[in-house]
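Q: Convert this sequence to structure tokens.
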Amino acid sequence: MKKISYIKNSEPMQRRRVNIKRIAFSVVLGVLFAIILLIVSACVLSYTNLKIDFVKTLASMALYLGALASGFLSGVNTKNNGWLAGLISGASYYALIMCIGVLFTHNLNILTLLFKLIFIMLFSALGGIVGVNMNFKKRKR
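A:
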């Protein structure tokens, strides 16, 4: 009697390494995306009557959306283990942002840094998961 297999692709899943160049590229694009969001929010704040207390909220949103974009791009590029690629890009993104932050401020709060680390890692892992599961269909010519 013949065994019936309901799995379409019975070959074992190939293990792919996380490419450091692609992760670095996604981190740089994530930082650029965050900078663009900061510039847009600065323009909005300068031409509207919003309170200046809103600046911290907009800066945090730009930071976390940049981490999401970084994780998304790393997930799209690796096409496998999006959460891991997102976490690696999030850790790199956090390290880069904190190095830049240390240059401009000397007043660092450990609790704030910890919360930022947690949220950046969560957003980048989520972006990596979404990026892996995106299907970009190629156009037929």
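Helices lie at 20-47, 54-78, 82-104, 110-132.
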